[in-house]
TrEMBL record:
Gene: greA
HAMAP family, per the entry: GreA_GreB
Domain Transcription elongation factor GreA/GreB C-terminal intervals: 82-156
Domain Transcription elongation factor GreA/GreB N-terminal: residue ranges: 4-74
Listed name of the protein: Transcription elongation factor GreA
Record has Cell division as a keyword: no
Function: Necessary for efficient RNA polymerase transcription elongation past template-encoded arresting sites. The arresting sites in DNA have the property of trapping a certain fraction of elongating RNA polymerases that pass through, resulting in locked ternary complexes. Cleavage of the nascent transcript by cleavage factors such as GreA or GreB allows the resumption of elongation from the new 3'terminus. GreA releases sequences of 2 to 3 nucleotides.
């Protein structure tokens, strides 16, 4: 059974989503199915079939989240004491090619959100940073070509 790394915050957000899907969302779908069933002939009832499909997708999502939480390896970045970049690190970088500064936190796959500066542990940028120290260059094989980032600061918060 492969462990799924995630931050403490990411695990809490997944638990909240699971509670919503199992509670409020399930009840909404059941209500929609009951309403559609009242319209009569189910074989030609598009609303009923759409609601049943939504129910199946919701149950699949619930199963997926429960599986990930069962296999979760929850890591609290605030407890990490490391000089090198590891999972949970917030890394301040300078894009050597463009001269711009960016900050990324390395998080689990389900937590990744580039708009919030959170990159997945499986992303090319995260893989390039892992094991590096302040002052090192991280070379990323991007679709547009090779990019270099200089690591300015590493913190665990």
């Amino acid at each position: 059974m492969e462990r799924v790394p995630m931050t403490k915050k990411g695990a809490e957000e997944l638990k909240q989503l699971l509670a919503y899907l199992k509670g409020e969302k399930r009840h909404q779908i059941v209500s929609t199915i009951e309403s559609a069933r009242a319209h009569g002939d189910l074989s030609e009832n598009a609303e009923y079939h759409a609601a049943k499909e939504e129910q199946g997708m919701n149950e699949g999502r619930i199963t997926d989240i429960e599986d990930k939480l069962a296999r979760a390896h929850v890591i609290d970045p605030a407890t990490i004491k490391a000089e090198k970049v590891v999972f949970g690190a917030t890394v301040e970088l300078i894009d050597v090619n463009q001269g711009t500064e960016v900050t990324y936190q390395i998080v689990g796959v389900d937590e990744a959100d580039i708009e919030k500066g959170m990159v997945s542990i499986t992303s090319p940028i995260a893989r390039a940073m892992i094991g590096k120290e302040e002052g090192d260059l991280a070379v990323v094989q991007a679709p547009g070509g090779e990019r270099e980032f200089e690591i300015q600061a590493i913190e665990y918060v």
